[in-house]
Amino acid sequence: MEVKIGVQYASRELVLESAQSPAEVENLVTEALAADNNVLSLQDEKGRRVIVPVAKIAYVEIAESSNRPFGFTTR
User: Fold this and answer.
1) What integer is the mean pLDDT of 29-44?
2) What residues contact residue 25 under an 8 Å CB cut-off, 6+ apart?
3) Which residues pair with 60 in a beta bridge?
4) How many domains does the structure of the chain reveal?
């Protein structure tokens, strides 16, 4: 699943592939916004962790990864 995080005053968004379900990521984002720890922490498929200050989050986009065809295909 693909997660895009827009950060205020940053020219590019953060994009990561997560093995978690969309509901799990949504819960983590909601909890981070409501909690006092002031950071959103997500882990990607390779085990890397992304930590973003909650005050700087502009948006979070959660989308299922699409399997796009590549090469030559017949329909």
Assistant:
1) 91
2) 1, 3, 18, 42, 60, 62
3) 5
4) 1
Q: What is the pTM of this model?
A: 0.78
Mean pLDDT value across residues 31-59: 92
74 part of a folded domain: no
Domain that holds residue 32: 2-63
Look at residue 51 and tell me if it is in a domain. yes
| Residue 26 DSSP class | H
For residue 23, what is the enclosing H or E element?
helix 22-34
Q: CA-to-CA distance for 39 and 49, rounded, in angstroms?
A: 12
Q: How far apart are CA 51 and CA 44, in angstroms?
A: 11
| 53 domain residue, yes or no | yes
The helix/strand/coil state of 48 is: coil
Phi, psi angle pair for 65, to nearest 5°: -70, 135
Q: Is residue 71 part of a domain?
A: no
